[in-house]
Amino acid sequence: MQPTSRHSQTPSPSTAKAKKPPQTQPPTLNSPNLIPTELLGSWRDNYCSVHSLSQRGRWRQIGGFNFQVLSRHQMQEQGKGVTRLVAQNEAKNPIHPERFSAFDFLPTKKPNQWYYCQTVFNALTKSGALSHPSADPTNPSEGGCGDFPWTLLSRKKPR
Question: What is the pTM (predicted TM-score) of this model?
């Protein structure tokens, strides 16, 4: 015998399966504006570490520290344009895995060189990393990155 009421065919709220919330998707990793074009490629810093920044937003620091860049922001600090990249530390990082970092970049007067300062390395959220004050760009070779000078990046193979 067929049910006579359409309500008898519909599961009650107590027996219906709860819908799962939609999963959030990671940011598009091939965004052309995520990392400034001038920063893409291989670099050596003034401490002899090698860095690689890709169009997919991946920043590898040879030696074990890897980051996935999530966003790019332009900031004005003391009359100088500072580019901030906010990244998530990869799960395999030996220190602060899966936390959020902020990196401030400043061009030098020489081609194929940039300064950077990691201003945040262990924020719990992306917004926490973004809201941290920028490094002081007044004299990056002498200080302004906490108690240290900014790190100088030189392109491994100049363009």
Answer: 0.74
